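Checklist before submission:
- one chain only
- standard amino acids only
- sequence pasted in full

Submission:
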Amino acid sequence: MPNDFFNGRPSVDPRIYAYQDTNPQYDGLLKVGFTNTNTFERVSQQYPTRRPGRLPFRIVLDESAMRDDGSTFTDHYVHKILRQKNIPNPSGEWFKCNVNVLKSIIISIKNYNEHLSDRIYDFKMRPEQIAAIKKTSNYFQTSKKDKKTPRFLWNAKMRFGKSFTAYQLAKKEGWKKILILTFKPAVQNAWEDDLLLHKDFVDWQFVSKNNLNFKKVNFSKPVVCFGSFQDYLGKNKAGGIKSKNEWVHTINWDCVIFDEYHYGAWRDAAKELFEAEDRKEIRFSEGVGIDYFDEQNLPITTRSYLYLSGTPFRAIESGEFIEEQIFNWTYSDEQSAKISWRGDNNPYLSLPKMVMLTYKLPDSIRKIAEKGEFDEFDLNTFFTATGQKNSAKFKYHTEVQKWVNLIKGSFEDELYNNLKMGSNKPPMPFSHYDLLKVLNHTLWFMPSISACHAMKNLLIERQNIFFKDYKIIVAAGNEAGIGVKALEPVKKAMAEPLNSKTITLTCGKLTTGVSIKPWNGIFMLRNTSTPETYFQAAFRVQTPWTVKNFDGKSPNEEIILKDECYVFDFAPDRALKLIADYSCRLNINENNPEAKVAEFIKFLPVISYDGSSMVQVDAEQILDMAMSGTSATLLARRWESALLVNVDNNTLSRLMNNKDAIDALMNIEGFRNLKEDIATIINKSDLIKKIKEKANSKDLTKKEKKELSDEEKEFKNMRQQIQKKLIQFATRIPVFMYLTDYRERTLKDVITQLESDLFNKVTGLRVKDFELLLSLGVFNSGLMNDAIYKFKRYEDSSLRYMGYSIRQDDRVGLFDTVIKKKDLMKEFINNPRPK
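Returned file contents:
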């Protein structure tokens, strides 16, 4: 059992204090200071020559300097507000005020009500932020000659600093009018704070629903307009633009930024995340009056688009963006930068390392929730609950109580507690010493609102006395608040986070777009099939948590309160499959799936209890788990997926403008009129856009509505026809793989192996034509790589099971070819290179 993932937490207690000096010259003055240690000891250090037994000072205030959300403030911040309120400050840290005034200021700071008008942020850009701006700016500059509005995607994990970096990009590009549309309005605070509190954006204006009104905007200075996609692009009853938002549609924006893009553009991901929430929450997350997002028919004009997402799987896989339109910054990139940083002031040092612990539950617990062909443990079934609020109860109350006993180390089971296990007995969250020290505040991701209430009711029952010190918050349902309002009860329960304990129960709220520093662990207690939902929730606990150490040698020294954070999962098969999915789909710079997984778990180690021992899982084991429970038929169907080919307008335009690519496809039966078909699709797209723009200014007539409907049907039908033809081509690739002797692992293997004539006969394309179509984004190489790898991995496993070797012809694979082992020995071993 690995022991180096549980580092605990340093002992620290940030305090704001004030004392009076008994010397008459300090009469009426208070010295206001900060310490991370004992207040009396800190003040005593300031009087090194005091007489024994006599105190020349009197401490009149000693308060925590930590807010409920885990953030801290120092005496410098208090001094700044005291001065702004014109409280006399004869020297240094001495102020002429009474204790009650000082207390009220500290309370206002804790509640973010201090209304400090000057700018308090002065942090600089990190290397990856500078790189993102450079790549994006270069792409926008080179795209000016194109007729199409340029689009760029930041595939950047949470904590990248998207708002700050986007504003810096705006400064570099000279943008004066920026529109930010988000699918998650709860992220407004981050966008607003970075603009109004950072010294780099003096005189910039922030317009929002509850902030500056557009009528008061000075358009001679930069303006940022922030709003929800569902509000600004939602329709009125007549199908037009809401009157209060007409001004947004009259401005030619320099850039439109889509934040949290993985939501509105991909409805199924949003629905899964909020499927267990109330209807109002679903409407809030997806928007009202939006049928489907398509920026090509967007009723807003702009010079450029910027898309932001931490999990843009579908956007990448669909070919919506090609490599030159994407900047990547993944969790692996972040943790690698943290390790490789040289010198002082490591900007990544405070970013916690994630550790995943998965547990196979004892048979006596899991048997009631096993279902399906492969007897998979179903979390949603296990935590099924009925009733509301105080009457909510789990269907399998006894088994869930056993699970509660298990996580606190008091579950009695002969097999689970077998003494032969020795040191391999799994560390449970609320019994393992090192885990118990840091898990004061955890998030539990439940299947439903009823399950959240049922869990609270269970934890406060008499037998669960262990949890009496924990404040349990149900962040689910209407009463918990919509969007960011659901944060308030959580923060309130975390008063003085170092000295309090909380458990937050949710089935969707607070799992995206929020940062709560004290959360140190998440329990994944619901099914989810998408890595977007899983990792958006999991990364909530990776928010850095630090305090300034003003008692240290350096005034800028930080104490890190969270070195590691933890993900606990009790459905190991599901967890490992999602890790394979997440790491393979998000890393587009690597073709080998095993290398992708290996890199990811290097920084997010997975420690799994399989029922007999607790071990760290490697990449091969994860991929084997991801492949279990599948079949050759299911894998073959991957080649019929619509995601394998891209037929959006941008891709079709690139294809139509490339004569060689068009000629290559038109040589294949069924593509004879391809160029004309593409031109028709693009023209109809423009026509549909014009009709919809007209609908924004007035109601359409019946004739116009029918025209719009007919055009859209024909438009979609023609696009689908091209899509089906391209998919038919893609399905020929597995046939080619069966016919060739070479064991392909990636798409590069397919298109660079030696049997090019065979490839041409089977597919109808020459290898160089296929490579050209890949470069234009017509085929999705990432998904093809995944399909090829899994197909061959399944085949290899079958051969090994039957006792056959998979090393056909004794060949060795190199970067872009294969040679026989005897030739390798002859070339590189028998004839070594001279030194």
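Reviewer check: The radius of gyration is 30 Å.
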